[in-house]
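Let us practice reading a record.
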Amino acid sequence: MYKALNYWVFGGFGGEKTPFEFIEWAESRGLDGVELTVGDAIKSDITEAECVKIADFAKKKSVGLKTIASGFYWGTSLGSGDETERKKAVDFTRKYLQIAKWLGAETALVVPGASRIAWDPSRPVTSYKIVWDQSVRSLLELEPLAEKLQVNIALENVWGRFLFSPMEWKSYLDQFKSSRIGMYFDVGNCCLYVRPQDYIEILGSKIKAVHIKNWTGDSLAGGNLHGFGEDIDVGEVDFSAVVKALKAIKYSGPLTAEMIPFSRLPNLSIPDLDLAAGTVEKLKRIA
């Protein structure tokens, strides 16, 4: 399978490394690709010419750009009950999908919404029904553009107290006619409630991309964000079972390590090039 690394562990949330540095580093580590992030690795107002320059450099280095990600949705939600905010999120996603197209990416990670973000008390608590209805409305508006651009909108299972189980995800995704709307499945994020292999079995071809990390719910971590540690090998994810389940659905898409060591909070301290390098070596052994 195609193995990649997400930008954040390499360049942090402040864009401390350029896309070109990341691509060059990935080539030196024998990675198949990288996941650039919009808002830090590249700015949301990036031009087509700038994207083409990045894409050409990646092609020259034989490094893929199959997926992109963004932290934008934590502050502006497609599922917001505030119409001004919802429209702002839709407008961003239109540009975001266009950036993906310019880069030659197949898939853009999108967060559909959150009813509560526990680590950000400034964000409003929103009813589950409002998040469902508003996020579906937003995605139906975006569906034609995803089809036109031939870019997947891949919705990630995140800690937003929304869509807790694979059956909820299946019901949610079945509302959309386009196969361009699917799931960006994070194998670590689901462990609090359900084994990752169960998601894979139920959702099948709706899975467009996969994030790799681990999580532990032991007494020290307390079942919270601190359970996302610094070592892919440590935690509750059974990677042999995950890979077996992916092979069973004939998945051949990206496996992208997303290492954000929340175990370090309150001082997150990324970028971390040693952690990035160690993660790559362990990722190569997974599949």
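A brief commentary: The domain at 2-286 is CATH 3.20.20.150 (TIM Barrel).
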